[in-house]
User: Which sequence fits this backbone?
């Protein structure tokens, strides 16, 4: 649980969940731009609040890309641990 929180909390606070990206400092805007949690929040907001599906494919593609890269990194590290 602790390791999950160590990863989740910085991603949450660096995303657009609490504050709009436009009022963040410039360095935080760059972090939020590449933050996968921002893509998840954009997708959920577009589905629940606005109902617009225009940005949904881009958000889903970014999420799938992040998941794929993390899966590959985890697989390589797991293989090293086993050997």
Assistant:
């Amino acid at each position: 649980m602790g390791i999950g929180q160590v990863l989740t909390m910085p991603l949450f606070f660096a995303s657009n969940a609490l504050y709009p990206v436009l009022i963040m400092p410039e360095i935080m805007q760059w972090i939020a731009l590449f933050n996968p949690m921002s893509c998840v929040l954009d997708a959920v907001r577009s589905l629940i609040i606005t109902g617009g599906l225009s940005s949904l494919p881009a958000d889903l593609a970014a999420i799938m890309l992040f998941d794929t890269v993390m899966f590959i990194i985890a697989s390589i590290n797991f293989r090293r641990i086993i050997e």
